[in-house]
Amino acid sequence: MNETDTYYESLMAAYFSGEATPDEIKQLSVWLTENPANLDSFEVYRQVWLMTAKDALSAGTDMEAEWKALTARMGPEAITSTPSEPAIPLRRLKVLFMSWKAAAIAAVLIAAAAAMFYLNSGPGTIVVAATGSNLEKVLPDGSVVTLYKGTEIEYPEKFGDDTREVKLNGEAYFNVTKDAERPFIVSGGNARIKVLGTTFNVNTKAGESKISVVLTSGRVALYFDGKETVGRILNPGEAAEMNTGQKSIVTNANPDPNYMAWKTGIILFENAALEEVAATLGKVYHTEVRLSGKQLSGCSLTASFEKQPLNQVLHVIGETLGLKIRQENGIVIFEGNGCN
């Protein structure tokens, strides 16, 4: 490992811990865009971090002790091979024996069009923003949150003894670690979603003064600030709309089979109207999708896709419905005379 690698590992460790200065963040950002291999390394580290960070948090691992021990193991003797022992590729060696500080930066998921920034909004407070694409983050209690592009989440460096509270601005999917002694609370304006351990999707920008919640597993309590006793309970498979202006909560069976498609990349259309197809594709692929005219409003689609590139999906839709699909200035446009 050369001095440059060591320097940027230190920068990344500081960045992850929220201790990096604005100048250091700028240096790191430039370095990440210089070579695609740097971005590839982040993806490998991210996968390891999502597993190791959560295990370490639950087991109370001494991060600094692990760092020192692994640093020693990363010495020259650790990468020396003999004729009888096949040489271990350096990249694989880094994955197998990466330091905790190197693994920690894996939470900074920066893919080709993604970046995550830590912003100090106060003592002991961290704000994470998914600025370019979706982003996964492990919280201090081991819970995992996936942020939709453009979403921000704020939380303390360490959760308190009574509750685990986060503030959300945008859309996110939560997989909350169970802790009966410390309920997990998501705040969006004056709306509150309280859980013990569960998986659910929250969108604080579902419409004007509206917050949507869809529950995958477990149970959650929905209420407004100061009115917990008059809240509603949401069960798996149900969705809720919270109106922060009127302070009303409406629950029903979840009507959207693709509410998690933006996270999983799995899309299922069952006799879906073309307007619905366009809206879902736009959300999943972060692009605008339009119909050329009202003559297409009668079109419907039955199809499924799993993590396929947008161009392949559009090709299948075009062939299935007999439509012409073009892209202009980053906008996808469905064109045709209608559907039978």
List the helices and strands and how they pair.
Blueprint: H1 3-17, H2 22-34, H3 36-59, H4 63-73, H5 90-97, H6 100-104, E1 116-120, E2 125-130, E3 135-138, E4 144-147, E5 152-156, E6 164-169, E7 171-175, E8 184-188, E9 191-195, E10 199-207, E11 210-217, E12 220-224, E13 232-234, E14 238-243, E15 248-253, H7 261-264, E16 266-273, H8 274-285, E17 288-291, E18 300-306, H9 310-321, E19 324-328, E20 331-335
Parallel strand pairs: 6-8, 17-20
Antiparallel strand pairs: 1-2, 2-5, 3-4, 4-7, 5-6, 7-10, 8-9, 9-12, 10-11, 11-14, 12-13, 14-15, 16-18, 19-20
Helix pairs in contact: 1-2
Q: Could you explain the architecture of this structure?
A:
The structure is a single chain. By secondary structure, the protein is α+β, with helices and mostly antiparallel strands. The protein has three domains: 1-109, no CATH class; 113-255, Jelly Rolls, CATH 2.60.120; 261-335, 3-Layer(bab) Sandwich (Phage tail protein beta-alpha-beta fold), CATH 3.55.50. The chain has helices at residues 3-17, 22-34, 36-59, 63-73, 90-97, 100-104, 261-264, 274-285, 310-321; strands at residues 116-120, 125-130, 135-138, 144-147, 152-156, 164-169, 171-175, 184-188, 191-195, 199-207, 210-217, 220-224, 232-234, 238-243, 248-253, 266-273, 288-291, 300-306, 324-328, 331-335. The strands form four sheets. It has an eight-stranded mixed sheet, with no helix packed on it. Strands 3-4-7-10-11-14-15 form a seven-stranded antiparallel sheet. Helix 1 (3-17) packs across helix 2 (22-34). It is flat and about 60 Å long.
